[in-house]
Amino acid sequence: MTIWQLKLSLEAVGQISGKLSAPGEIVTTIIVINRKCSKRPYLIRAMRDWMCDNSNTPHIVVDTSVDGISVPLEHVKDGKIILNISDSAAHNLKLSNDAVSFRARFSGVPYDVWVPMRSVLGIYARETGHGMIFSHNAEPTERGESPELQDEVEETRLRPHLTIVK
Questions:
Q1: What are the pLDDT digits (tens) for 40-59?
Q2: By residue range, what is the domain housing residue 75?
């Protein structure tokens, strides 16, 4: 959750809301933006960069049971596929926040690969085996918080939170 605090003159607020009371008065507005943002794509990009910088070959392990995947099915084993995402193997590689996409050759046949980021189970270096594994339930919820924290926040919202100060 991102919180931005803006201080606007009441004239600016009046122009936005169509209301204006005391000109020149300062009003504080708090804007809360909820974003569903996974750490997975950032960690994958960082691990890949680290592996390439150390002359290792980055590979990702992909769960092929996730909808929307485009991989050569003849190379799938036990519902998973291992993909080489090094510069020499993955042409036109794009590691966006939503998906991994590239063009590669599988048994000499060119193929456009597209896998949703949520289907990537891990990334590792072929030479050393060092890497990172992700779990399916590690994704943020719709509000970007754990269900326990959401319940706690909801309970807090139900209680009155204004007090009289004299």
A1: 999 999 999 999 999 999 99
A2: 40-136
